[in-house]
Write a structure and sequence with these properties.
304 residues, alpha+beta, Structural Genomics Hypothetical 15.5 Kd Protein In mrcA-pckA Intergenic Region, Chain A, Pseudouridine synthase, 6 helices, PsdUridine_synth_cat_dom_sf
Length: 304
């Protein structure tokens, strides 16, 4: 597969755009890191209406902005993920820069070893191979967690998307069934999470090297033995949803680490909705990932 050596982006500023410096547009509105803005400036690879413009000059409604990135702008311009079968790839959204897939339960997000196959990123690599594109992982879901997973298609949008994730500008809602009946209809769980010193696979509230973790939830449905909860993460700690609800005495149904369920009961945690600002634009998309069959089977036991 031929590897691209440059990536171009062209955007026309909307009519309701408030004039500001080109630097402010690139860094404050489009979340480009300072070193990339410097590279664009040094190489005169940022054009306004077809002409180079110093970044301290203002841009205005209707102006056309063109950016050109080179492979040399990035420490790791190519992801080099080994393609695998694309049969399991379920695309929720795709444009020239990124795609969001509905990750299959039981699939790892990305390979951990060179040449490893069978992960979601390997499957997406096969899907993109015919387009001469490569996948770049932005965030991850636990192997048994299903649902909306964000993947970049070129190195230029990777730092933008990473910053959007870090600053919580990408809004993600999870759905999960937890054991027992939650009395509150909504609430906030604010408890630090650290390492579990007796089991390196696990985390625990107030464990070793704790970091504050904040989880917001809203009850969506109930049955006599379990509660369906919509969850928003204000922080992003490892196993945060799983640890927080387990600490309340309401572990997630099927959790192999924090619940005492039969092994055949799979984890009922799903990345359900994703609200995403699109890079180098002023648009947003709202996406919903359909629930896996494991959710439907669990619900049928109580509601049919």
């Amino acid at each position: 597969m031929a590897q691209a050596t440059e990536w171009r982006f062209t955007t026309r500023l909307p009519q309701n755009f408030h004039p500001k410096s080109l630097r402010q547009l690139l860094m404050a509105d489009w979340y480009l890191p300072k070193h990339l803005v410097f590279s664009l400036k040094r190489g005169e690879r940022v054009l306004v209406n077809g002409q180079y413009l110093p970044v301290n000059f203002d841009v205005h409604p209707g102006d056309q902005i063109m950016l050109k990135f080179l492979a040399t702008d990035f420490e790791h311009p190519y992801s080099n993920v080994t393609p695998d079968s694309a049969a399991t790839v379920s695309v929720l959204y795709e444009d020239a820069n990124l795609l969001v897939v509905n990750k299959t339960q039981g699939s790892k997000t990305h390979p951990n070893q060179p040449g490893e196959v069978g992960t979601t990123l390997n499957h997406v690599a096969a899907y993109l191979a015919s387009k001469d594109q490569q996948p770049y992982v932005i965030n991850r879901l636990d192997q048994e967690t299903s649902g909306a997973l964000l993947i970049a298609k070129n190195p230029a949008v990777v730092p933008v998307l990473v910053r959007l994730v870090k600053e919580k500008l990408i809004k993600r809602t999870y759905l999960t069934w937890v054991h027992g009946r939650l009395n509150s209809t909504q609430g906030i769980i604010a408890m630090p999470i650290g390492l579990n010193v007796t089991d390196k696979r696990k985390r625990q509230v107030n464990g070793e090297h704790p970091q504050m973790a904040i989880t917001r939830f809203k009850v969506m449905d109930r049955n006599p033995d379990a509660t369906l909860v919509a969850v928003h993460l204000q922080t992003g700690r490892t196993h945060q949803i799983r640890v927080h609800f387990a600490s309340l005495g309401h572990p997630i149904v099927g959790d192999p680490l924090y619940a005492n369920d039969p092994r055949q009961q799979r984890l009922l945690l799903h990345s359900w909705q994703l609200r995403l600002p699109l890079p180098f634009s002023f648009k947003h998309v709202m996406l919903t990932a359909s629930l896996p069959e494991t959710f439907h089977r669990f619900e049928q036991r109580y509601f049919n």
